[in-house]
Design goal:
Blueprint (H helix, E strand, L loop, with lengths): L3 E6 L4 E4 L19 E8 L6 E3 L6 E2 L7 H12 L3 E5 H8 L16 H9 L7 E5 L9 H5 L4 E5 L5 H9 L4 E3 L8 H10 L4 E4 L3 H9 L5 E7 L8 E2 L13 E9 L8 E8 L4
């Protein structure tokens, strides 16, 4: 039986199909020339954990008890609408070490074959471009990107190691500056992606990128899955990092759905938020 969820907001409450829930947002149509629509997603627990640290290795990972097939389906729908995915060097290093799964392509699994068709029917390229945000420029290039013939670009800060910039460019990988220091910053990154013609940008990054996007007023939308579990643990990460966001952290709920079945019968909310711009 196809998964169903309960739409709670905006009302009145109504049971709807899970499949197509995020596709209905038509994110690929919301960006304009030079002004891409930038969105991010996270899955977290009731106590705010998006990742926990291994007590021995110190490596961070998504708590398995808050993962679910229904959430992953919506993740894939968000990915399918992007003409550009932004990832980071840490993810590529973890991918090479076998600590994380490769999620940089659409239509490579039985669960998302329909989304490859959806991209084609909606005029998007077979695979989204991949932008790698990195301060150190120390990362391996995944074979899957090469096999998928995806366009690859690298974003870095102005203080990036010049020899590594030169090495990437020598391999034919474009490198552009999107920050005045070592790290990539939200507003410069979005300006450059808009200049390059990208219209829908999905952030597959983490707390640092979300924080800089919010501070710079560069985030268009946030999707948040809240699993009804308390995870606990001594070492953990939450959605934001760095100095307090103050007014830049204001977001308004624009939709809320309730999934009573997953994960593990506890249930979860699928929430969508739009940042509030300064008056």
């Amino acid at each position: 039986m196809a998964a169903r969820v309960l739409r709670l907001f905006p009302g009145p409450p109504e049971e709807v199909a899970l499949a197509g829930l995020c596709l209905a947002d038509a994110l690929h149509t919301l960006g304009g020339a030079g002004a891409p629509f930038v969105y991010a997603s996270f899955v977290g627990s009731l106590d705010g954990r998006i990742a926990v640290s291994d007590a021995i290795s110190g490596d961070s990972h998504l708590p398995v008890e808050i993962t679910s097939g229904n959430d992953f389906r919506l993740f894939l729908e968000l990915q399918a609408q992007a003409d550009c995915l932004v990832t980071h060097g840490g993810y590529l290093r973890d991918l090479a070490a076998g600590r994380l799964d490769d999620v940089l392509q659409i239509g490579t699994r039985a669960t998302d074959r329909d989304l490859a068709d959806w991209r084609r029917e909606n005029g998007l390229s077979a695979q989204p471009a991949v932008v790698i945000a990195s301060a150190s420029l120390d990362f391996p290039m995944p074979e899957s990107i090469i096999r998928g013939k995806q366009r690859v670009l690298v974003a870095t800060g102005r203080q990036a190691p010049p020899d590594r910039v030169d090495a990437l460019r020598a391999r034919g990988v474009p490198v552009f500056v999107a920050g005045g220091g070592e790290s990539v910053e939200g507003a410069p990154l979005v300006r450059e992606l808009g200049r390059l013609g990208f219209r829908s940008v999905y952030l597959l990054t983490g707390p640092r990128m979300l924080s800089t996007m919010l501070r710079d007023g560069a985030l268009s939308r946030l999707y948040l899955t809240i699993a009804h579990r308390v995870v606990g643990g001594e070492g953990f990460h939450t959605m934001a990092t760095g100095p307090r966001l103050e007014g830049a952290g204001r977001l308004r709920l624009s939709s809320l759905h309730y999934d009573a079945a997953e994960p593990d019968g506890a249930g979860q909310w699928f929430a969508r938020f739009d940042p509030l711009r300064p008056a």
